Amino acid sequence: MHVLALPTVLIFGFVMALIVGMAAQRLLGIRLGAVRLLLAGIFALIVGPFIMIGILGPFAPPPDDPDPQIDFDGTTFWFFLLSLVCIVLASMAFIVVIEAFAPLGSIPPARVWGRGLRARFKRARRYWQIVGIAVRHGLGPYIRGGRRRALAVPSGRAQLGRALTATLNRGGVTFVKMGQIMATRRDMLPSEIVAELASLQDDAEPVPWPEVEAVLRHELGAPATEIFADIDPTPLAAASVGQVHVARLHSGDEVVVKVQRPGIRPVVERDLDIAARLATRLESGTDWARGMGLSTLADGLAAAIREELDYRVEADNIVAVAEAHPAGTGVRLPRVHAQLTTERVLVMERLRGTPLNAAGPEIERLGLSRADIARSLLSVLFHQIIDAGVFHADPHGGNVLLLDDGRLGLLDFGSVGRLDGSLREALQRLLLGVDSGDPLAVSDALLELVPRPDEIDEQRLERDLGRFLARHVSGAGTPSARMFGDLFRIVADHGLSIPPEVAAVFRTLATAEGTLSTVAPGFNLITETRALASDYMAEQLGPEQLKQSATDELARLVPVLRRLPRRVERIANAAEHGRLGVNVRLLADERDRAVITGLLHETLVAFIAATTGIMAVILLGLGGGPAVTTDIGLHELIGYNLLVISAILALRVLVRIFRRS
After folding, report:
1. Would you kindly state where each structural domain of the chain is located, as residue ranges?
2. Residues 504-523: what's their mean pLDDT?
3. Which residues are CB-contacts of 240 (< 8 A; sequence separation ≥ 6)?
4. pLDDT of residue 611
């Protein structure tokens, strides 16, 4: 019997703790996890004996009583029930305290603690390693929130850019990739920092061929020798995320095989998590990070890098751009072999040529016009942006080839921009307004491109845009891509935020300027873009195009126009006979009704809790009434019960408030 006593007591205690916890959960009107449920029940079992002694003490027999038993008459049983309710009340109070300091979901489940403990140690070690690298390369004062005055001048921002570039370069794969993407974010970063970040190089040691072959076997389901008629084990190029090998299919087509580095995804995910934490820490503690919107920037960079880790995204991007690619432009895109493309392997047609940033001798050998090459590339990008809304968003010199036949080829579609029809129309109006030097038209188009705030000084915006146009478009100076930086500053000064899709357009044009100025020194991107925009708008406003647009609009309006007379007649008849009315459905959305119902419910519960509490205090203050025990009257007993009810209702409201916050 003694052997079974301890297990019996434990089982009984567990069952009682579970019952009390479930009762507290039900009275609070919330759902608890198993751990919190048991903790609440265990707390109630610990304090329960003390509560019962305090309430049932007056009914206990004297110490010298030879038969020490409590007489359970009606009054005693009522106080016994009151003690049980108070025990549940204590459990509810314990739950409310837990929800106030550690809301549900803020602490990972116990199974996650054990499973992720090792990963947490690794992440913490890597976190402090990155912080140490940042401090050694001069970012320490910026992390602490200092150097505010230095950041107000270009030399100070350039110094921050150098320190940031050195830190990212030593941080490894993910941070180098983030730095390269940051170097394209002229819409969010000062030009001095962008210029320093542009020096980051994404070179890496090649992965040994056996490891690459293992990835190919895993992804394609067969040895590389079976999939390809021939494949070169020596990579054509090696970067931090993947490397490229030249191969030939059994059909005889020459292809390039892009293979992701083994084990790179866990490393990148860990570093992205660290980068997000660092961005949040810096944004909460420093003005410069808050001004750049560092957390938003880090989230955008993380999304871009995760897309690069899935080669199927790049394959879809190539297909999307190819479908929208204007014909007869002299610019080629590689053909994707979809049946051989997976998350970590991309097989596409090989385009033979020389990167445009190193194609000077080849241009001379072929006798090509540098200006014609630059115009051809710019024309393709312009029509991809304005006509199709799907465009190559990273046209730097390494991603554009001068092919052996004199045409151009576009590579690396990991970054592709997309614009919907309304954004393209607003962008067209913006270009038309810039070309005509009309600040009012530019202001209207700009406010269609960006999310419009509740309050904006449109007159001041028009004046600022007028000065902007006078400086970059109508003035004597030569317009350049630096005008994008001035436009971004105007947008920021007026509390506007450029959507990522539109920012990608400006980044693309700014990147293209660097490429075009390399291949054709003196080539002015802004002037040429204005010429393209003028030609495009002239085409769109030509007689045939206007006639077609009017025909399309009329075709869409015909069904509405046919129904309009009947509807006008019905409205007129209703008004004539006094039957015209307007039906307005308030709170038609069920989510709105749920919010209002919840607020009314909580307000009513809080009112009842306050009312019962006041009644309890009044009754306890009055005392008197029929005697229930030698010390307690009926009024006091009712007051105590009302006080318990008030406490239960108040705790129910509090736990919902803490859980929402």
Report:
1. 113-204+267-304, 370-541, 590-660
2. 79
3. 173, 176, 177, 202, 204, 261, 264
4. 86
Cα separation of 536 and 54, whole Å? 89
- pLDDT tens track for 361-382: 888 888 888 888 888 888 888 8
How many contiguous H segments (helices) and E segments (strands) does the chain have? 25, 11
User: Which of 177, 185, 209, 146 has its CA nearest to residue 306?
Assistant: 177
Q: What span, in angstroms and rounded, lies between the C-alpha atoms of 333 and 391?
A: 12
Per-position DSSP letters for 141-210, written without gaps between them: HHHTT--TTGGGSHHHHHHHHHHHHHHHHHH-HHHHHHHHHHTT-TTTS-HHHHHHHTT-----PPPPHH
Question: CA–CA separation, 609 vs 603, rounded Å?
Answer: 10
Name the amino acid, one letter, at 299.
Answer: D
Q: How far apart are CA 631 and CA 263, in angstroms?
A: 76
**Under a CB-based contact definition with an 8 Å cutoff, are residues 1 and 66 in contact?**
no
Which is nearest to 390 in space by CA: 322, 329, 321? 321
Let me know: does 303 contact 275? Beta carbons within 8 Å: no
CA separation for the pair 217, 238 (Å, rounded): 20
Secondary structure (3-state) at 72: coil
Tokens encoding 497: 């935020």
3-class DSSP assignment, residue 248: strand
pLDDT at 482: 62
Let me know: does 409 contact 333? Beta carbons within 8 Å.
Answer: yes
Q: What is the rounded CA–CA span in Å between residue 108 and residue 104?
A: 9
Contact between 353 and 410 (Cβ < 8 Å): no
Of 481, 513, 460, residue with least CA distance to 187: 481
86-138 pLDDT, tens digit per residue, is 888 888 888 877 776 666 555 555 555 555 556 666 667 777 777 787 777 77
Kind of pairing between the strands at 400-403 and 353-355: antiparallel
Average of pLDDT values for 489-501?
Answer: 75
Cα–Cα distance, 593 to 596 (Å, whole number): 5
